[in-house]
Amino acid sequence: MTLEQLRIFLAVAERQHVTRAAEVLGLTQSAVSAAISALEARHGVRLFDRVGRRIVLTDAGTAFMAEARAVLDRAETAEMVLEDLAREPRGRLRLHASQTVASYWLPPRLVALRDLHPGIELRLTVGNTTQVADAVAEGAADIGLVEGEVAHGGLHLQVVARDRLVLVMAADHPWAGLTEAPLAQLAACPWVLREPGSGTRSAFEHWLAGQGLAVADLPEALDLPSNEAVLSAVAASRRLAALSHRAVETAAAAGRIRSLPLPGAERPFSLLTDPRRHRTRAMQALIGLLVG
After folding, report:
1. Which end of the chain, N or C, is surrounded by fewer C-beta atoms within 10 Å?
2. Which of 259, 261, 256, 238 minimizes the C-alpha distance to 189?
3. Contact 16, 54 (CB under 8 A)
């Protein structure tokens, strides 16, 4: 079994299509098919079922995906360690960040990193806080940046910035002309919330608990998977939401929504690393920018 066979297997498995995988890999369809066939023949296991012109992962193929991905992640880490022997920070840096951090706080800092160290290749993946923490713990990410509570006790957490949640509503909402949020009336209003697992949702739930409330107390709560989706839903309805003040600035400036402060709804932006893993020069360069 070779690393190239594993890369080909994962490309086919993720797309369930030989031709599309071949295009992404820059290989011929016959080369991809041959690699899969050789892998199956060498180990006496069928990884895909051929159904007409389609292919479908078998149970064995599905189980093998996680192991193949873990091997490739470790191989990539080993390659980065070797590349790190150079004096100038260079090589690939796998960065996972939650949505609010990735969209509103991180981009100028990544630009600064590339300006200082053009030899660093950045790979940014966006997910919610739970997904980011999982990626760092599993070795799929070198650095994670989150805005919520982290359940992985083995990770190192360092606060790099502060944020605050605000109450968001449509520009023509009955509360739009107020200067303070009527906290006693929050449980009487319909809401739009970020999905469970997001840092924004976690921070809002924590703030609600301080008000003697829970999400279950909010009527007609609708869960949506991004800040943009929440803003669109709020702007077109009488629903309320709680989002980072960074996420609402553009929509507020355009007159689409209004926001009011939520007293005590502050939260940190945190950097996650795994202390068991080698810290490359590229990682050190980015961390220096983020905490400086």
Report:
1. C
2. 238
3. yes
Facing residues of 193 across strands?
223
Give the mean pLDDT of the chain. 91
Alpha-carbon span 119 to 112, nearest angstrom: 13
Specify whether the CB–CB gap between 146 and 213 falls below 8 A. Answer: no
- Label residue 272 by pLDDT band (50, 70, 90): very high
Per-residue tokens: 157: 């957490």
Q: How many alpha carbons fall within 13 Å on the CB side of residue 136?
A: 33
Report how far residue 62's alpha carbon sits from residue 75's, in angstroms, rounded to the nearest whole number.
21
Report d(CA 240, CA 231) in Å as an integer. Answer: 10
Axis crossing angle, helix 29-43 with helix 18-25, rounded to the nearest 10: 110
Closest to 194 in 3D by CA, of 157, 240, 161: 240
Find the helix packing angle between 3-15 and 18-25, rounded to 10°: 130
The pTM assigned to this predicted structure is 0.68
Cβ-contact 201, 195 below 8 angstroms: yes
- CA 67 and chain centroid, separation: 22
Q: Which tokens is 247 given? A: 């996420």
Residue at 23: amino acid letter: E
pLDDT digits (tens, 9 = 90+) for 167-216: 999 999 999 999 999 999 999 999 999 999 899 999 999 999 999 999 99
